[in-house]
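Team,

Forwarding the record for the chain on the shared tracking sheet. I've put the sequence and predicted structure together so nobody has to dig through attachments.
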Amino acid sequence: MNHPEKMERDDLIELVGTLQSRVAELESEVAEQAEKIKSLEAQLAKDSHNSGKPPSSDGLKKPKKTKSLRSKTGRSVGGQKGHKGHRLEMVEVPDKTENYHLTDCPDCKNDLSQEAIKRCERRQVYDLPPEIQLEVTEHQAEIKDCPHCEKEVMANFPEHVTQPTQYGPRFKAQACYLNTYQMLPVDRTAELLEDFYGKRPSNGFILGANAQVEAKTESSVGAIKEQLTKADVTHHDESGVRVAGKTQWLHVSSTEDLTHFQIHEKRGKEAMDAIGILPNATGIIVHDHWKSYLSYDNVEHAFCNAHHLRELIFMVEQHQQDWAQEMISLLCEIKESVDEYSSSHPDAQSLPPNICKAFETQYDTILQRGFDANPQPLPDPSQPKKRGRQKQTPPKNFLDRLQIHKSGVLAFMSNFSVPFDNNLAERDVRMIKVKQKVSGSFRSDSGASTFCNLRSYISTVRKRGLNVLSSLSDALFGNPFMPSSSDSAPSITSE
């Protein structure tokens, strides 16, 4: 027969065991929920100052005050000594001259009408004529009877003269310029042309002008792609765009004097292969750490340190990582050293080997401090073993990336042709984003493709320091700008 005290003790032991098991379950749930909360808070904390998110995604919230990572130069604000200014220069032979006669002295009122002119002070005003009108040219082709073949024959009209009445190539170039380069909507483009010239073209005419310029510049865009595959250093980026009611991807490849845009329904390697630049490239490509770029082993990789700085700021703010602040300081210090050394040694291609070695040692030391503060997490023996890579913390993942791709992160100090960041490609993408803000989206795939081809041509022309409107007119007259490797840009101008 069981003793009552013994039964009560056994029940208490069982109850304690049950409670301990339940407490362990609750602790596990709390830890899991805390991790999810931390992850969600980290997502909410990301904006344009500490991640790769664009400023447009910040919304209406008050932007966080950020401290510039640039060191103070000590120079005053504004134009610096030696800066070349820009102003209107006087012409030797003006189109018109207005003379103002001096008939009496403004001080004593003495008559000066018979006095000799000592000299004239000149001032010139650049302005438009009071009225700008379209010039109408009538083309007349002779028609004759041929006595030999007894046929009525006619002389050939110029290639661009195809209709009894039509707008000419220069007018079409202006329509394309306003709609595609200045990004006016089609209706406003037609309205502006009417205000300027008294003739309002149809919306179809403007779209048709874009299509004609696209056809005339097809060989130019092909040459741009070919030149990009041969370039020593190219910049690459991608961004989402809305086309025909769905999200597609704009891919940009560019250099200081070449730009190529293309839209594809995919973001990754499938799209990059279809575009055909990266598979055939032979130089160094600058990009962020998007994994599709890393799939190409026919090129060397350099990474955007502007992205790294923003991610490091996030590590400092959200994960309290001291090593990240040290890495920010180091990258900025290396950049300053590169700028100063390249300025004082114009023929240098890199920092001296001993300086590079010292910076690499500092880089490795900071990473090691980061790894010490973020050790590899041990597997939980109470949890079932999972397949695949073990989950790590964001700081540990970032540290692994900086270690694995060390040569690409520091490429800018060992090769001065490699920039510190990928801002060139991001500036080129910006114009397409502006177009999307103006229009909301592209209505059709063909419209998006036409816009990209035209902007590829226009951006390249602009980077070469050429006049965009003249280059569009030349294309319609059958003489488009053709880039070649021997071309040099007199003035590189960002769009």
